[in-house]
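Exercise 7.
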Amino acid sequence: QVQVVESGGGSVQAGGSLRLSCTASGLTFDDYVMGWFRQAPGKEREGVSCISRGGGRRAYADSVEGRFTISRDNAKNTLYLQMNSLKPEDTAMYYCAAGLGAESLYQYAYRYWGQGTQVTVSS
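Solution. The predicted structure, written as tokens, is:
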């Protein structure tokens, strides 16, 4: 059974940093592209960042480019999202997802999803 579990969310002040982690089990981690998505109350889920199987290709939403960094450790079956210079508009539930196609910020490219971790940024 595949399980995807996010951790590392919390409450921070604007300008602060958080590091999200996502562990996946029940699958061969390096067969999967991975992505981070977020959903704020009343808004649609949006792609934040994605990374290729080997980690050599990464993509970011314009809203987080230069502030967030995605990485993965295939030996530990773990995906990370380093979030710096956080803004109140980054407040959302953050989700990790695994997919078998090409890396993408499009949510329908992903098959397995975690339950999410809440990030709240106060001004």
